């Protein structure tokens, strides 16, 4: 360790090289910070990991069932119907089918069929009761019931079962939690807000009127297996809430673009429930599709059945009119040209009539401005124009042939229309009986083997990583929020006061303190216990030796041999410094006197194993002789004067001339007198004592004091005329990632061992 010289320069010190090094943040320094705070990181990681493990094993399992549906490309009314009716088909997109499956039409029926709007489950002990019950159920081969734990018999602990098929309550009680309490011999009670609403029996409907306003409650429990007094939670959800909850647990996606194969998945808390829900939704969807197609064909059939009687009358009237005219006029033969005209006219009128019928049917679905209706209107206008052209050709024929041509055309058109529609109607009746939809179930759901959640390994891994991240973040936040000075360089730069030594934290010292407290509680006499005596090779004591060397040169021109040790605040280790400094000085052959000058809370005597009475306060009052107050500490080879009895006026005693005379006389008998004084910011005692000392050391604890506190402490001492010689930077953490020697970033431990 390099020590500062006696005449420490009072000018600004050049720290340009140090600042450049400090401002350079590299990976090794970051790693050093993390290693130094490893216990904080380990603690946070352990807590987070424990929470993750708890979540992984306490969360209720979730199972997923999956099935496949096929949606055909063509979604016409029925197989073969398009050719018969000529209706324009539309292709439903896969997205439309997915939304249809998620609609209230499908899911609402599934909720109703499976009673998904009724929640009935055992009431478990909070936090871990459900996990205990599941663990019991895994090994429950004989369907028995678990014994209640912790004396909580109203909670379910494993093996309990309940099924509620009917639970009707007034609308204002929807989504409210009821308690079903199991009783003896299949009896039960339904409780709400600690009030028994009704009593019932398994397998029988139980109901009761609530007041005189017609409100009632009804419940049917076909299955109840539990110990008497076991509680179950029963909730009747509103239909909308139940549908939304089911919708959030289903997922539908197309397997491969354009394949028309839909994969439907359902998540549920049990394997069989997931399978039942998925299969029910699939069956409802397929049946709804069939019903929709059947409804389309039914509407078409009804339309045809309305048209057939009208067409039959028209056909019979046209036939009678033609026959009557032939009878009146006799046999009239049509030449080949006229027959061709007749054939063309029949075809055009037949097409026009069919097209008009199709337009009338489409008009029930679409408005006049719809593109399909507009397209049919254009076709009708085109056919009408062709018919008008035919009529002009017919107009040049003889009158008899014109009449025969018109009557024959009417008869053939009506006959052909009637025959066509009659055949279509019969075909529709046959097709309707075997209607199939354009969707089918490819794969039904199977019981899943393992739950999809909780993913235990993933949760634990995330918890571990998150714990490490939070630990690292906590380390840096802690450093950012820390206002205490951790670098002695900053003190020297800001206060222009030398740091004589940096004393690392000593684990052995903490062991000694705990040992002293334990002996004190037992009532036994306290032996002298100083770190300088118990472990001379401790790093803290090595730093004391460095301080001893520095003080040796600092006192070459001192006006007396009295040193005061103080600090800004209590509990910073000034007693540790003063007592062990005395021992280290004495080990160098010096005659040392240690005085406990803190007549308010001084307790150095505890570490030295002597009583507090007959000390400094009595000496100032001339109540005892000096030789009666001095205690020889044999193990440490120095003398000690305790505080004596705590006086009510310590400051007044220290201001008494007897104290100055005492120090002057007693200092002549020793090479060095060390006075441990109270903190300077707490009381004025240190300012009084320091004026009588040739040098004052201010103990600063690493990471505790903000710079303003140190500035105020130094200011008070200087204003009181105290010679603040230097600072002892105490309790510097022994960082496993860094070495510190003196002050700065390095401490080396060098052990001398005898060779063998």
Please give the CATH architecture of the domain at 482-732. 3-Layer(aba) Sandwich
Give the strand order, joined by hyphens, for the main sheet. Answer: 15-22-21-16-20-17-19-18
Assembly status: single chain
- Number of helices in the DSSP assignment: 25
Helix fraction, binned, reads: 40-55%
Question: What's the N-to-C terminus distance?
Answer: 29 Å
Estimate the strand proportion: 15-25%
Give unreliable regions as ranges: 1-24, 75-92, 738-756
Radius of gyration: 52 Å
Give the CATH level 1 class of the domain at 482-732.
Alpha Beta
The CATH superfamily of the domain at 482-732 is: P-loop containing nucleotide triphosphate hydrolases
Gross geometry: elongated
Describe the structure.
With 756 residues, this protein is α/β, with parallel strands linked by helices. Among the domains are: 119 residues, no CATH class; 133 residues, no CATH class; 251 residues, P-loop containing nucleotide triphosphate hydrolases (Rossmann fold), CATH 3.40.50.300. The protein is built from 25 helices and 22 strands. The strands form 5 sheets. Strands 15-22-21-16-20-17-19-18 form an 8-stranded mixed sheet, sandwiched between helices. It has a 5-stranded antiparallel sheet with strand order 2-11-5-6-7, with no helix packed on it. Helix 9 runs antiparallel to helix 12. The longest helix has 59 residues. The protein is elongated. The two termini are 29 Å apart. The N terminus and C terminus are likely disordered.
